């Protein structure tokens, strides 16, 4: 160590020559001074915080409304409704109903930053994400073998798509891209039908029987309707929930409304006309 460095070290650790003895220091005055200094510092922090909040609020109002979809909180719910039919043309028995579901392109809800980190993607009004969902009348999307005592039945299928924002179910924001294989509630059509229902149950109904081992696509993309999203929706975390239900494909079970009592009458009439 050089002589200069030694001198610097000595100066740094030595007491000033004119430092008064500790017994001569008025600790009450020091404490009061410290408290006033701390209070002034806290007041300054509060003023700066209020200013930042005002700036952030103004920025949020001017910015594009965004809904942040949480990839890790995406909840894909498959609901299997297994029923035992009674009466009409349905014999009393346990139906061997099977249904499997597959969701593709879930990585479209996240992005990779320049630092290589995965973060949630912000969804702006009018955005479309290529989220794809499909179902199959089987226990496995890839196929399965049937045992000697097994007799899988054809099924009717319906599903609904809901976005949960702050524990509120929203059916108006997401618009699925789908084929004409699905029937949706039409208030004008229902009004002109005998026994037409008066309310939308938010389900999409498959316009055919789904035979064993057959598959169909629920939707191939989801549009976030920019005409529906409001400023109150911006910046919230959400869950996408997909509910899929099935019942045995016996027409009497839907025409007599034993099951799916809220189904549109238009769908029932469509199924009645099918061969």
Instruction: Report helical residue fraction.
Output: 10-25%
Structural class comes to alpha+beta
Tell me the overall shape.
globular
Computed over alpha carbons, the radius of gyration is 33 Å
Which segments are poorly predicted (pLDDT under 50) over 5 or more consecutive residues?
5-30, 57-92
Number of DSSP strand runs? 15
Beta-strand percentage?
A: 15-25%
Average pLDDT, to the nearest integer? 73
The tally of domains stands at 2
Terminal Cα span:
99 Å
Number of DSSP helices? 5
The major sheet is characterized as: 7 strands, mixed
Element pattern in H and E: HHEEEEEEEEEEEHEEEEHH
Q: What key attributes describe this structure?
A:
275 residues; alpha+beta; 2 domains; seven-stranded mixed sheet; three-stranded antiparallel sheet; 24% helix
């Amino acid at each position: 160590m050089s002589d200069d460095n030694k001198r610097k070290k000595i100066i740094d650790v030595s007491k000033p020559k004119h430092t008064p003895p500790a017994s001569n220091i008025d600790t009450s005055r020091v404490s009061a001074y410290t408290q006033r200094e701390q209070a002034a510092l806290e007041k300054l922090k509060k003023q700066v915080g209020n200013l930042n909040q005002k700036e952030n609020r103004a920025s949020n109002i001017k910015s594009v409304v965004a809904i942040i979809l949480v990839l890790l909180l995406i909840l894909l719910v498959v609901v299997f409704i297994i029923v035992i039919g009674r009466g009409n043309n349905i014999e009393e028995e346990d139906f061997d109903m099977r249904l499997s579901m597959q969701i593709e392109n879930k990585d479209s809800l996240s992005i990779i930053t320049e630092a290589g980190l995965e973060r949630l993607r912000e969804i702006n009004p009018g955005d479309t994400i290529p989220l794809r969902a499909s179902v199959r009348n089987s226990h496995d999307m890839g196929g399965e073998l049937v045992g000697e005592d097994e007799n899988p039945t054809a099924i009717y299928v319906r599903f609904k798509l809901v976005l949960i924002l702050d524990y509120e179910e929203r059916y108006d924001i997401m618009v699925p891209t789908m084929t004409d294989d699905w029937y949706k509630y039409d208030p004008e059509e229902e009004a002109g039908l005998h026994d037409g229902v008066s309310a939308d149950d938010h389900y999409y109904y498959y316009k055919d029987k789904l035979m064993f081992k057959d598959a169909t696509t629920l939707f191939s993309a989801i549009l976030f309707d920019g005409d529906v999203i409001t400023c109150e929706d911006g910046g919230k975390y959400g869950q996408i929930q997909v509910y899929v239900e099935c019942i045995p494909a016996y027409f009497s079970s839907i025409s007599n409304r034993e099951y799916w009592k809220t189904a549109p009458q238009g769908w029932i009439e469509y199924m009645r006309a099918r061969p």
